[in-house]
Amino acid sequence: MAQPLVKKDDDRDDEADYSPFLGIEKGAVLQEARVFNDPQLDPRRCSQVITKLLYLLNQGETFTKVEATEVFFAVTKLFQSKDIGLRRMVYVMIKELSPSADEVIIVTSSLMKDMTSKTDMYRANAIRVLCRITDGTLLTQIERYLKQAIVDKNPVVASAALVSGIHLLQTNPEIVKRWSNEVQEAVQSRAALVQFHALALLHQIRQNDRLAVNKLVSSLTKGSVRSPLAQCLLIRYTSQVIHESANNNQAGDRPFYDFLEGCLRHKAEMVIFEAARAITELNGVTSRELTPAITVLQLFLSSSKPVLRFAAVRTLNKVAMTHPMAVTNCNIDMESLISDQNRSIATLAITTLLKTGNESSVDRLMKQITNFMSDIADEFKIVVVEAIRSLCLKFPLKHRSLMNFLSNILREEGGFEYKKAIVDSIVILIRDIPEAKESGLLHLCEFIEDCEFTYLSTQILHFLGIEGPKTSDPSKYIRYIYNRVHLENATVRAGAVSTLAKFGAMVDTLKPRVFVLLRRCLFDNDDEVRDRATLYINTLGGDDAVVETGEDVKEFLFGSLDIPLVNLENSLKNYEPSEESFDINSVPKEVKTQPLAEKKAPGKKPTGLGASPAGPPSTVDAYEKLLSSIPEFANFGKLFKSSAPVELTEAETEYAVNVVKHIFDGHVVFQYNCTNTIPEQLLENVTVIVDASEAEEFAEVASKPLRSLPYDSPGQTFVAFEKPEGVPAVGKFSNMLRFIVKEVDPSTGEAEDDGVEDEYQLEELEVVAADYMLKVGVSNFRNAWETMDADCERVDEYGLGPRESLAEAVNAVINLLGMQPCEGTEVVPNNSRSHTCLLSGVYIGNVKVLVRLQFGLDGPKDVAMKLAVRSEDEAVSDAIHEIVASG
Amino acid sequence: MLLAILFSNFAGHIILKRFNGVPSEERLHWRTFLVKLGADNLKGARNEERAFCFFTKNSNSITSMNLVVKFKSVYIVYTVLGGVRIYIVGKDEYDELALTEVMFVITSSIKDACGKSPSERLFLDKYGKICLCLDEIGILENTEKDRIRRRIGLKPPNPTEI
After folding, report:
1. Which residues pair with A184 in a beta bridge?
2. Which residue range or ranges hold the Clathrin/coatomer adaptor adaptin-like N-terminal domain (chain A) (predicted)?
3. DSSP track, A673-724
């Protein structure tokens, strides 16, 4: 046994300053380690030295290779001693030193001897050490002993072997997997710990075999598992089985629920909690199933142990997201947790209460939270702010107190993320609750008076420019905005100038005064600020008179820029200064989904474009130029949309072909991008023979063959179809590549004169409804929706049938319509049972379309959807419904 | 996975540490982070046992220290025992309850090895023995202080325990 280094002395015990390791020094300890080599070993002295070595290692001291080897060899000498305490220290020391492969050999024989010793404790420890330092080859040698050890009647030996197995599974899984019969036997052991370790190992061995896990769980849930730890493991495995089986069978009783419910009455808290949590996390759990679990969690809320309170409140918090009503019973216990000295518990309690609370309790809650906010970290505060935002949207009548709370915390100290969360919340509340607008805007005004974050200031100024002029007394905001021009950096100043101009444009009475202010900005020392001021003075075009601003000016100031900024940037980069001014209408509007692979990019053809533009090429732009350069297609009009390339061949085939669908008003052009991957061949006169018998509304009008397709030099061939003008015709096309193939002499690179005609079957191609829709986003969906004529709205409901998940259903509809998801609504939170998705796009004929999709789970898997469409043309609204109905 | 067990004195000096599957370049960050956590939250909690529990969603507070944490969430349980602070970090199946179990085993076996809640000095006096305790506890290999005491002395467990 390790001896104390200094004689135990109660008087000196409390002198914390004095350390037995005071002035310890590596060199000296290594010197001392020479005692290990003494012929007459002093076990007590040796134990002390080992303790010092352990201390050094724990302090982060590193030994050089030579030092480590020396110490290791010395330590192995200690196996000669019969002293039990020293032997125990030696085991630890060998593990700590983690010797290299060539050193392990030295100690192996001693450990093997211990492993087969009659003393159980030697066996157990030798197994642990050996498994820690061994490699694969040695392991096969000792495997026989380990298998025996697993079923040893002494639980210490069995546990040591099992735990070693768990460690070894990481490095030598194939060996450990051979032990599963022995491990299976150990699961039945009467010793609690052995059962626990065996169950853990058995599950790890079989975790990829679903059937085996299922069997394991079925047999163990019937019998009695002794150790609470093993019982916890079993609950986890059970819920995993339930989860997996739920995916297969849709109806019927939930298997194993009775087992979980039974565990709620176990005597160990650990097991009770584990079972309660497993129940709350069941897929599509019903309130009847939840009730017993909530009841035990409620008891934990008032436990004296912080960890139980934490665990319970965290679980209830999760439940509140999906089943808020189920948690309301715990509200009283939860309120007392707000004053819990552990801040994690308090934050969780508050956010849970905010989710489950009713309207009458809001004021009381807010009072409690105010005291609490000052002493928690930013990340907790953000959680609270987000919870308050959703509470306010739930109870709009309470906006006054909630908005006050938000403005109060906005004034206090905090980092960027926290402030941004508050500002975002206020902005959302202003948008959604009209009564909160004026007070909210003033709060934001006060905030920018003393805001250290440029980003937030400019965001708020932009928002003020949109909302401020619509209020009853817009003049009161001017002071705050103009102050920015004096006090802030150039970015904020420029933002302030734009905002002032918006006030001037919208509020005719303010216009002359705004002009005075804008003129002062003409002398700013920053280019951008001066430019903006000049621009606005000219566009507003006033001579200090109170005149009404023209519609086109308003459109210019307030109209959303419905062009993706990336596209605009690319077009501007490609623009060469000339007599012709830059035309913003030439910028493609479609959001680029994915950049084309370099190989497939068009424009490499000699007849095509000149040098490819710098940066990522604006593909639509390039396609348009390419197509207009071909006389056959020149009179098709303006290109509406080009699809992403669709592969028509498998990867790594002789000829790689993909197709781009170009949609015009009355025509469709297929551009086949072909690549010849055989060095010994030259293809000539390449065409694609298209069979349009399954596309009745399409008639082939032109085909442009590719004269020659040498190895690894992509080329294009085109086929054009006529279709009824403005009609979103759909259909299926089958394709056959036809060409003349000529052999190429690899040494000279010259082709033979004679060629053979050949064909190559390609995959089918479809023109679908989504091809007639451009992905064009809007910056503010709500505004865009409201400005669209409500008469052109069409609403209907659809059943989508059983679906894998809500997210899958949402994605399917987005892909079907080919529209741009707005405001991140394409992401469906986990476990949600309903979801709203906003889409926008431009339909063929340049008709703007907005779609609001509301999804709900109807029963366990069935998804129902409400589709509301607004567009500039009611026929288009109907067309969208048709797409969904037929999709 | 039981990621780390750390012991520090009140001054924040690490006395004893065990890391498991934590890359060495991240260890220093963990040490700093945990010591600060203790300094912030365990003040005044002398000579009384108190298990705190902390859960970081997406490890916000840790990433802010430029520590690249691969785990979605980690659990930390920490406490004061006499003159030392003890921190345990776990993930996945080592959630707050499992860690509390580990903490209970550690505190009870240390008290057993030292005869009482140890001062820093006593802790250092019994350093070797405590190292052995931790070795026996491993990843919940042994959970009872009596059993651990006997195993440190290389004595087989009490027959009644089995």
Report:
1. none
2. 27-540
3. EEEE--TTEEEEEEEEEEEEEE-TT-EEEEEE-EEEE-BT--EEEEEEEE--
Length of chain A: 887
Residues 97-126 of B with CB under 8 A from A: 97-98, 100-101, 119-122, 124-126
pLDDT tens digits along A383-397: 788 888 888 888 888
Q: How many CA atoms lie within 13 A of B53 on its CB side?
A: 27
pLDDT higher than threshold 90 for residue A278: yes
pLDDT tens-digit readout, A406-426 = 888 888 888 888 899 999 999
On the CB side of A31, CA atoms within 13 Å amount to 5
Does an H or E element contain A868, and which? strand A862-871
Radius of gyration for chain B, computed over Cα atoms and rounded to the nearest angstrom: 16
Quote the CA–CA distance of A39 and A46 in Å, as a whole number: 13
* Residue B127 to residue A50, Cβ atoms within 8 A: no
SS3 A462: helix
Between CA A407 and CA A665 the distance in angstroms is: 53
Q: Can you read off the two tokens belonging to residue A388?
A: 């308050």
State residue A493's pLDDT score.
92
Q: How far is A310 from chain B (nearest CA, A)?
A: 7
Enumerate the residues of chain A whose CB falls inside 8 A of the CB of residue B159. none
Return the residue of A nearest to B49 by Cα.
Answer: A305
What's the gap in Å between the CA of B99 and the closest CA on chain A?
10
Q: Print the domain residue range for B147.
A: 2-153
Distances in whole angstroms, Cα of residue A513 to Cα of each of A169, A500, A523, A620: 78, 10, 17, 45
pLDDT at A5: 47
Distance to chain B for A79, nearest Cα, Å: 15
Domain tally for chain B?
1
* Polymer length in residues for chain B: 162
The answer to whether B77 and B51 have CB atoms below 8 angstroms apart is yes
- 3-class SS at A31? helix
Say whether B121 and A193 touch across the interface (CB within 8 A).
Answer: no
- Note whether residue B161 is domain-resident: no
The domain over range A626-767 is classified in CATH as 1.10.10.2840 = no
Task: Tell me the CATH number at B56.
Answer: 3.30.450.60
Inform me whether the C-beta atom of residue B72 falls under 8 Å from chain A C-beta atoms: no
- Sign of CA pseudo-dihedral A56, A61, A67, A70: positive
What are the beta bridge partners of residue A706? A686
Interface touch A20/B143, C-beta < 8 Å: no
For residue A511, which amino acid is it?
A: K
- A546-555, A769-778, B3-12, B39-48: least confident range: B39-48
DSSP β-ladder status, A699-704 and A646-647? unpaired
Under a CB-based contact definition with an 8 Å cutoff, are residues A325 and A287 in contact?
yes
Per-residue pLDDT at A613 exceeds 50: no
B23, part of any domain: yes
In a domain, B162, yes or no: no
Contacts (Cβ under 8 Å, ≥6 apart) of B67: B26, B29, B30, B33, B59
Among A368-382, A608-622, A671-685, name the one with the lowest average pLDDT. A608-622
Contacts of residue A253, defined as CB under 8 A and 6 or more positions apart, other chains included, come to none
Evaluate whether residue B160 is within a structural domain: no
Q: Quote the CA–CA distance of A260 and A264 in Å, as a whole number.
A: 7
- Is the ipTM higher than 0.90? The answer is no
Residue A46: closest C-alpha in chain B: B128
Domain A772-886, CATH: 3.30.310.10
Q: How many other C-beta atoms are found inside a 10 Å radius of the C-beta of residue A15?
A: 12
Q: How many CB atoms lie within 10 A of CB B59?
A: 20
- Chain B residues with CB inside 8 Å of A19's CB? 120-121, 124
The residue assigned the tokens 């052009």 is A669
